[in-house]
What we know:
Elements: E1 3-10, E2 13-20, E3 51-52, E4 70-72, E5 78-80, E6 88-92, E7 98-103, E8 109-115, E9 119-124, H1 127-137
Parallel strand pairs: 3-4
Antiparallel strand pairs: 1-2, 4-5, 6-7, 7-8, 8-9
Amino acid sequence: xxxxxxLVPTVLGLLAVLCTGxxxxxxxxxxxxxxxxxxxxxxxxxxxAPVSVSALASDDPPACEPTGQVLVFPDGGQLQLPGxxxxxxxxxxxxxxxxxxxxxxxxxVVAAQAGPGCVxxxxxxxxxALRRVHDAFGSRWMCD
Length: 144
């Protein structure tokens, strides 16, 4: 997957839309489409402390985005988020465990951990963020 910012023309002007792995042209497989206020980035969280992925799992909308911070997974694995716009990223540990994240605009960040062969998948994020990622990339988004 690649990360590419996309500009979408509207009657009100141009809105910056972050799209992960695609060009935002509309709802379709492999395309995460965020428009208008949904695409607006959240304020950056203050501080540089590591963030437990369990903190991403909430029914409440996030107040900030952990840009540049380290995500910590239940097994102790860590994944450094980029300091700029969040798209989608992942890394595999020597054990074969894969750690992944995806930025979903105002819906926050989702994170996932999957064992070798994409088994034993765990995900964290708001219900709205997880739904949008699943709709765009499928339930195995962290493994593809």
